[in-house]
Amino acid sequence: DSHCHLQDPRISEDLHSVMNRASMAGVSAMLCCGTSEQDWDKVIEISQEYESVIPAFGIHPWFIGSRSEKWLDKLECVLKSFPQASVGEIGLDYALKECNEKEQSSVFIDQLRLAAKLDRPVSIHCRRAWGDLITLLEQENGVNQGGAIHSYSGAPQLVSRIQSFGLSISFSGSLTFEGNRRGKASLLQVDHERLLIETDSPDLLPCGYTGDNEPANIISVVKEISSVLGCSDESISEITFNNGVKLFKR
C-alpha cells in the first residue's frame, strides 16, 4: 500500500485490528503519510510499533495554513531522525474553496528541495493543478531520487511526461468505479516499472465497500488493474510490491 494514513483517528482507534486484516490480506508494506506537524508524532509511533509501516512526513496542501513559523526546520529534523522516511504527503490542490496558489507552490517547492537535499522519495498530491505541477517539476529538473503521484487523476496524456520526471503513478480505489474511464485510460499508459497501488485509507473506499477504507481493501485495486491490463492478480501484486519497496523502503 504505497499511500495510506494509519494515523487518522477514523482507523487509528482500532489499528491493531486494521493491521491484522492487512496482514491476512497479504499487505506486508505500507507507506504511512503524515499531513501536518500535528500528526507526525503519531506516524512515528505507528512506524515504530509495526515493522511493515514506512513513515513519511510532510505538509499536505490542505494544512499549509496551520504550519508553524519553523515548520521546514522541524520537517528536516524529523526526516534526519528517521533516515528510512519519505517526504509526503505534499503537493498542490486547487479544488479548495479557499486556495492560495502561490503559497501552495512555495510550500511544495520547499519540500521538494528538502527531499532532494536529503535524497528522499516523495509522495505527491495533485488535484486540478496539473499545469502548475508540470511547470514546477520542470523548474526543479524532475525528482532524481524518485517519488509517486498518489491516487492519479490526471489525463492519460500526462502520464509519459510525469514519468519522465522520475515519478511513479499510483492508483487507488477510485479506479474500481465503472465510470472512471479516465483512470483506466491512464493506467494503460503507465510503464510497469512505474506502477503502484494504494488505498489512501481511510478515504477513497473502493466500489462495493462500506465504512472507512483500510489497507486490506487494496486487493480490489489489484483485481481492477489486472482486469484492465489482462494480467493475473498475482503478477500485479508482485509488480507493484517490488516497485513500492524499491522506491520507498530504503
Brief rundown of the structure:
The protein is an alpha/beta fold and 250 residues long. The protein is built from ten helices and seven strands. The two termini are 16 Å apart.
Characterise this structure.
- The structure is a single chain.
- The chain has 250 residues and is an alpha/beta fold.
- The chain contains 10 helices and 7 strands.
- A 7-stranded parallel β-sheet has the order 1-2-3-4-5-6-7, sandwiched between helices.
- The longest helix has 18 residues, at 101-118.
- It is globular and about 45 Å long.
Radius of gyration: 17 Å
* Range of helix content: 40-55%
Average pLDDT confidence is 97
Q: What strand line-up does the widest sheet have?
A: 1-2-3-4-5-6-7
How far apart lie the N and C ends?
16 Å
For the biggest sheet, the summary is: 7 strands, parallel
Give the CA-based shape: globular
Secondary structural class: alpha/beta
* Annotation field: number of helices: 10
Order of helices and strands: HHEHEHEHEHEHEHEHH
Which parts are unreliable, with pLDDT below 50 for 5 consecutive residues or more? none
Percent in strands: 5-15%
Number of strands: 7
Topology of helices and strands:
Blueprint: H1 9-12, H2 15-24, E1 30-33, H3 40-49, E2 53-57, H4 71-81, E3 86-93, H5 101-118, E4 122-127, H6 130-139, E5 147-149, H7 159-164, E6 167-171, H8 181-187, E7 195-197, H9 218-229, H10 233-248
Parallel strand pairs: 1-2, 2-3, 3-4, 4-5, 5-6, 6-7
Helix pairs in contact: 4-5, 9-10
